[in-house]
Structure formats: structure tokens, C-alpha cells
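Subject: complex prediction, re-run

Hi both,

The earlier run crashed halfway through, so I resubmitted it with identical inputs.
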Amino acid sequence: MMNRADPRAWGINQKLAFLAIALGALALIGSPSPGGAVTINTQELADIVESEVDHVTVEELADWVVQDRADYRLLDVRDPESYARYHIPTAESVELRDLHGYPLYHNEKIVIYSDGGIHSAQAWFLLRAEGFAGAYILLGGLDAWKDAILFPELPADATPDEVASFESRRAVSELFGGKPRTGGGGTANPAEIPLPKVKPPAAVAAPRARKKHHKEGC
Amino acid sequence: MIAPFYKYGLFGDEVSLILAAVIGVGFGFFLERAGFGSSRKLAAQFYFTDMAVFKVMFSAIVTAMLGLFYLSWAGLVDISMVYVSPTYLLPQLIGGLVLGLGFIVGGYCPGTSVVGISTGRLDAVAFGGGVFSGIFVYGELYPWLADFVKSTSMGRVTLDSWLGVDVGMVVFAVVIMAVLGFWGATTVERKLARREAEA
Amino acid sequence: MNPYLAGMGLGLVLLLAFVLMGRGLGASGAFSTIVAVIVDAVAPAHAQANEFYLGYLENGYGSPFKSFLMFEVIGVLVGGFISGALAGRVKRTVERGPRMSAKGRIGLAILGGTMMGFGAKLAGGCTSGQGLSGGAVLGLGSWTFMIMVFVGGYAGAYFLRREWR
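This time it finished cleanly. Structure:
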């Protein structure tokens, strides 16, 4: 079809074929990533850490849980005992050493949390290095979750705006079995408030997370 | 904002369903434009008289592949978030063969039968009924088939990672194969048309 | 329409699905959803005990019908009709070769559809989901599948020439 003896030798088909071949040839030069082996671009990772785009805030996560969203996986990288005592709804328990080989897809959005941020940061690095581009850290970890979601505090000298936003946070807190604190510094330290009880841990978390998975194939 | 937009949370589930319908309208429109509402046109592929199935399918694959490649190259699409159906080598080999035989016996595939139904083809309606029964048979046999269907699992493997080459190399190879295939298909069509005209 | 231009149109729709949704097109999944819902309505315990049906029953945003593929296939019905109506190709007819009876053709269509439904589920998708969408993202299994579809079609063609030629 390219070289047939025809007065209209460069018809639409020939032009399209030429365009496709040209774009295909250009692809040879502009390959974005080498296939097969994993390469770690440490500069790129450092930049991501610096710019904090790899974070999900506890408020965002709470929204996702409330909306029953199914497009993320939530990994709890603390030890199983802590997980059994309390975990964020929909979380799956994975220890850091089991992370390699844990069934995750490269196209999933993966949110990792630990108590603070150190273990989750290590897990994040591990996943990124293995090419999981959709890995995110829960900013502030479980500590931030307790402070902002489970036990939000209304300062004594709150402005009307703050009071208004506190009302919606109170509803979210109660939804997750938490306890909002009002009246300023008088109330207890979050660490001393009992955490909401978790129903049979293994039964709640794992099957639920799987069940919510939407089919992407036929 | 980086694509895929849905997976980056640009819009929610309800909007995604509306978009699904819009995408479907486009899909159905171009399938019908290609002539794929007709089983005779589809079956002609396997008698070398009209190779439109091959031509349409591979120009679509080349278009989408080049589009994805350059969008991800420009950093506009996070390719790792795009779904690649996992490889189960043996089930896909056997399934493809059964499906190919069903194609020539029935004259449609599930997508084109929907277009055939919407343009009044009664054989497409019968074919669609057959698809339901085939899936039902599969569902009933599933407890016995499950082990086979999950066998030879290789996960999310793409041709470039499997061959251990740059994705650009595979993109180039696919384009060249497609264009050579188009040229070959057109040549065969012409030869057969000439022979039929002489006969 | 020029097959390459129609193919480009299809490719751009597919690309749109990738960019917007991060997933490709499909068709057989919608058929499976309907089968699973019917089985569940007739024999709920039976359907709930079957992992295959359960996968489709638990899919969707609150209801199996509120899924991407169901809405997409409804769109295909509409889009196909629009294009067919514009071109004057909407016609109640049974497509068949000159030597084939309409009854025989309907029987073969049902048989072919059954094989197609079974094969598509075995392979995890049909020509749209596995072939077109998986092909464009260069899936190894999808390309294996696609080659076998053409092998199967050409292998059967000789025996079915009375149906089409």
C-alpha cells in the first residue's frame, strides 16, 4: 500500500501509515523507563519527599472511609498486636518485613500508616523502590488520626467559624467511635482516652477490604 | 492534574458512571461505523475477502498505544495506575481459541453483538442469548474450573517487561507489524477480488 | 467508513477511557453481571456460594448494575443505534450467507454465542476487554489471547463456509 503505482500515491491511508511509523520510530528514542529491572531514582524520591505530594491527610482518608471508596488500599505497618487493639477501618495489617511479596498491584493507590511517621516512611520507600508509584503516607500517622479525627478538640476561645467546622468534625468523630473534646485544655490528653473497641479484628479488616474491590476487567 | 483522573480522585463514582455511558456511546458509534453491526462483514475476515476486523482492531490498538505512550512520556498519565489485565497464560490460550471458534460459528463477539442488536439484527439477538447461556454454563462449572482458570498466573506482565526491552522498542515493533499487516491484508483482498471477477 | 479512520476513532475512545478512568473498554462483564443477578434472584444461596457469581454481585457502587461496564454497554446500544440510523443501516434482518437458512443461522448464532461466552470467561475477557484494551497496554496475556482468537477463527472458517459464503 505504501509503494503501489497509483496517481493518488499519498492518500489518507498512506499518510496515516507514515504518521504511525514516524511516531513509532520516535518512541525508540523517548522510552520513559527501562523494562524489567528495577531502578531507583533517589533524586526523584528525595524530591517527592521534599514536596510532600506523597501524603494523604487524615481528613482525606476519613472522607474516603466514610464514602466507602474502593480505589485505595490502606496498610497498617505496625505490629499485629497494636493492630488488634485498634486500627483505622478498612486497614490491612502488614508488617514491614512482609511487605515485599505482599499482594499489591502496581496500579493501586496504597496508603501506609504507622504510629508516627517513621515506619510508614520506610515502607513507602520500599514500595516506591519496587515501582509502586501509587504509594502514599498518611501524614502524621495514627497519632494525627487520633488527634484530628477520633478526638478533635474545640479550644475554649474558639471563633464562630471554628465552632461551625467543629460540628462536622464531631459527627465524623462519633461515626468512627471517637469522642470530641470541648472546653479547651481542661480535658484529658488523647493518649489517656480509651480507643474505640475494634470488633473481631481479622474478620473486620481483610475480607472487607477485598470485598470492596471493584472489577476492572471484563 | 495527572491522569487517570478517576484514580486520582478528580471525580467520584456517580460521575464515573455518566462518563462510562458517554465512552460507551463513542465505542458503539465507531463499531457501527466500521460496519461491525453486520456478522457477514465480521465473518469475511476469516475468508480473506474483507479484512476490516484486523484493520480496525489494530489501528485502534496502535492509536491508543501511541497516545498512552506519549501522554505518559510527557508525564500526563501515570501509566502504573492504568489497568493491565493479569496474565494467566494457559487459560487465555485455550479461552482465546474457544472464543475464536465461537466468533466464526456465531459471527459476532459480545461487543459487536450489542451493536448488531441495536441495529435490528436478529442473529445478533440470538448470539447475545448464547453469550448469556455460555456464561451461565461457565458459572455452574466454575467450582471445577477455578483451579485451571487461576493456573499459570504471571501477574501484571507487559510485553516489554517480559522481553526485557524498552517499551519504546515494543511500541515501534507493534506499529511496524500493524502497517505491514495492513499492506498484506489489502494485497490479499485485491487478489481475491480479481480472482472472483475473472471466475 | 475507511477502516483505519474507524479504528482511529475507536482508539481515541479507548484512550479517553484510559485517561479518565484508568481502565479500558469491555463488554462480556456486563453480560456476566446480568447472568449473576438472575442466578442470585432464582437461587440466592447457590449464587452466594459461588465465587464467580459473587464477584459480579459484589461489584458496582452499591448495586451490581451501577458498574462501569453496565453503563458503558448501555452507551454502546445507544451509540450503535445513532450511527446505524444516520447511515440508514437499521433493519430487522437475519444476516447469513446465500446458501444458509435463517433458522440454521439463528441456531449457529446461539451455539457461537455460547462458545464465545464460555471462552471469554475462561480468558478473563472478550475481544474488547482482553483484545483491544489489553492489546493497547501491551499485556502479555492479552496478546497471547488475541493471536489465539485469530487462530480459532481461521481454523473454523473452512468448516463453516456454508454459513457465510
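The two ends of chain C are 23 Å apart (CA to CA).

- K.
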